[in-house]
């Protein structure tokens, strides 16, 4: 399966959430996080990870006909335990890698159709007119929108209305930190709430609070993952394929209509 994780506005912690979901993924599937933000990857810098950008390596093999096993062969582990495919920091290079992975019957489509794989694609702040993001959302089984339940992000989502709900037919909200009650957010946005993660404090002075928060964060991420799996299990499974019109637009560097 392929799960897209992203945000509508701001930086509510989509990458941290994607890592937490992969670490605590509740099914027997092998879980991976792929950096798919068209602006460029950040995990290499965050975790000081040496070596090649793993998403670009997989894309290079995929251009020569590689398959789904490439994810397992080239994923790297971050300190939390999640296995990741780090993206190039340069957005142009990352989008080029995505184009190779999003071709029809390519590695990402194979992942979407494989029940033994949970590929969690961190798409960052979502701009659905970006061809690579649009192609990925077409392939995804579900979209997890990460948001802080405070006035700025929730009212921004509410103002977007149907535009936000049209991103994917199976979109759920994962809230991070305190704010409006989850049931009020669900009613306002007309989107299901998959769960709520605690806000992990930042900074050196917050070290002990971070340690105390880690277990509850992990448990909340596992609960959210179970909610995603349960929603998908209730649906009739169908192989997903990306639009060939979108693929053609990607290859030409243009925009799909």
Alpha-carbon distance between the two ends: 26 Å
What is the rounded Rg? Answer: 17 Å
- Name the CATH architecture: 3-Layer(aba) Sandwich
Coarse shape? globular
What's the gist of this structure?
The chain is α/β, with parallel strands linked by helices and 257 residues long. It contains 12 helices and 8 strands. Helix 10 links the parallel strand 7 and strand 8.
Offer a few descriptive terms.
single chain, 257 residues, alpha/beta, Rossmann fold, eight-stranded mixed β-sheet, 8 strands, 17% strand, globular
What does this structure look like?
- By secondary structure, the protein is α/β, with parallel strands linked by helices.
- The chain has one domain: P-loop containing nucleotide triphosphate hydrolases (Rossmann fold).
- The protein has twelve helices and eight strands.
- An eight-stranded mixed beta sheet has the order 3-4-2-5-1-6-7-8, sandwiched between helices.
- The chain is globular and about 50 Å long.
């Amino acid at each position: 399966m392929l799960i897209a994780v992203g945000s509508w506005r701001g930086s509510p912690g989509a990458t941290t959430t994607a890592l937490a979901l992969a670490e605590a993924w509740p099914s027997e599937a092998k879980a991976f996080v792929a950096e798919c933000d068209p602006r460029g990857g950040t995990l290499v810098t965050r975790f000081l990870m040496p070596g090649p950008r793993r998403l670009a390596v997989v894309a290079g093999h995929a251009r020569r006909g590689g398959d789904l096993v490439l994810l397992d062969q080239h994923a790297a582990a971050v300190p939390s335990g999640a296995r990741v495919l780090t993206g190039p920091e340069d957005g142009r290079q990352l989008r080029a890698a995505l184009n190779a992975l999003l071709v029809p019957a390519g590695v990402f489509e194979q992942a979407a159709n494989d029940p033994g794989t949970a590929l969690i694609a961190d798409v960052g702040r979502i701009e659905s007119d970006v061809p690579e993001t649009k192609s990925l959302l077409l392939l995804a089984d579900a979209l997890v929108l990460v948001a802080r339940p405070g006035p700025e992000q929730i009212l921004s989502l509410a103002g977007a209305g149907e535009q936000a709900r049209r991103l994917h037919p199976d979109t759920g909200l994962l809230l991070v930190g305190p704010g409006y009650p989850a049931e009020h957010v669900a009613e306002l946005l007309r989107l299901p709430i998959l769960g709520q993660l605690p806000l992990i404090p930042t900074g050196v002075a917050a070290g002990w609070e971070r340690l105390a928060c880690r277990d509850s964060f992990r448990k909340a991420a596992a609960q959210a993952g179970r909610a995603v799996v349960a929603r998908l299990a209730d649906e009739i499974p169908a192989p997903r394929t990306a639009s060939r019109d979108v693929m053609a637009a990607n290859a030409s560097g243009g925009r799909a209509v």
